[in-house]
Amino acid sequence: MDITLTLNGKKITDQIDPDLTLFDYLRSKNCYSVKCGCETSNCGLCTVFFDETPVLSCSVLAVRANGHKITTLEGLQDEASEFIGFIADQGADQCGFCNPGFVMNTIALLRENPDPTDDEIRQFLAGNLCRCSGYEGQLRGIRTFLDSKKSR
Amino acid sequence: MITFQKYVKAENLEEAYTLNQSKNNKIVGGMLWMRLSTANYNTVIDLSGLGLDKIEENETCFKIGAMVTLRALETNKSLNDYTNNAVSTALKDIIGVQFRNLATVGGTIWGRYGFSDVLTVLLTLDTYVELYKGGTVSLAEFASMKYDRDIITNIIINKKACKCVYDSVRIQRTDFPVLTCAVSRLDGEYRIAVGARPAKARLYGDDEAVLASGITNESAALFAEKLAKQVPTYSNNRGSAAYRSQLVKVLTERNLIKLGGLM
């Protein structure tokens, strides 16, 4: 099947199998930030933006991206660089495998709610599983980032 | 994961319905549960081009398209004002935001899943399922119908004087629920739905008029105790039948007390 989509700002046309997932398609386009953790729609590692909405790319058919805008972490480096240093400062990146999905969903959170409470952060990021950090370091990193923004 | 040879984005409901009459074809919603199967289909039918992704509201009802995502339901202010946030409470722990941005209300209701928070909360509202060929049936009736090859087009929630409370028990946030419980009062009528028993949610009423004189701590406890004896529960790796029956009692009593404004 032929699809045309905008990937990280670049319009591309491709021929794909109808049952190809968006995750597999993005990896084939060298978007290696998109990782597969569970492949059961649970872990959040494969989070990408479908238009402006965070979704699990492992659970979306690539053909559904036809005519839409797909953004991976490769396309959001500037926005991500604002706060990933704060995550690293808390030692919250640990093995790093979950980080791209976590960063993508944090960007989605902060776009929707620029000043979230700790509970709102926990709620929004509940679908991003991390087997290293226990989540507290990540929460501290986001909180420190938000506090530093307020004090600027 | 499921495999298939052909993908069709339906241009109208008749095309989708005609294609869906073949057992080798399948309609996909958010495709989150279905993708986990190993089935092989000839054609999957996508309804996402049919404008069924809107929540419409008028003076008498909410009309929710089958392709509306769970996240859209969760964040719809008007629906949540109407239900005292019971809908958003029911949805907020279903996996994560990214999952709920994909899962559709039509797919969830069609599945009539035994773990469904959505089915539980919607049963306590005056909810109807609009089918393309099968007319409009109450959600309680739909939940007990056999699977056929019709298509859900909309979910209709008729507005009444409504107060609703929802709660569930999960071993961990984002996990399947161990038990779900919703309680509502619609135009003075009490409706109690219990799900994740672990079987699809069932709707109960105040048949013995225990709550006829209003909700007090005593009437809530008595009602909950009686209900716990009525609701069939079963065991699985998330909890035993006995534990679930105890949860029926606790959640029903707690929700009734909240509904009555006593907590």
Description:
- The complex is a heterodimer of chains A (152) and B (263).
- Chain A is 36% helix and 15% strand.
- Chain A is of the alpha+beta class.
- Chain A has 2 domains: 2-75, Ubiquitin-like (UB roll) (Roll), CATH 3.10.20; 77-151, DNA polymerase, domain 1 (Orthogonal Bundle), CATH 1.10.150.120.
- The longest helix of chain A is centred in the last third of the chain and has 16 residues, at 136-151.
- Chain B contains 10 helices and 12 strands.
- In chain B, a hairpin with a 6-residue loop joins strand 11 and strand 12.
- In chain B, helix 9 (217-230) runs antiparallel to helix 10.
- Chain B starts with a strand and ends with a helix.
- The mean pLDDT of chain B is 96.
- The chains are: A alpha+beta (152), B alpha+beta (263).
- At the A-B interface, strand 4 of A face strand 1 and helix 5 of B.
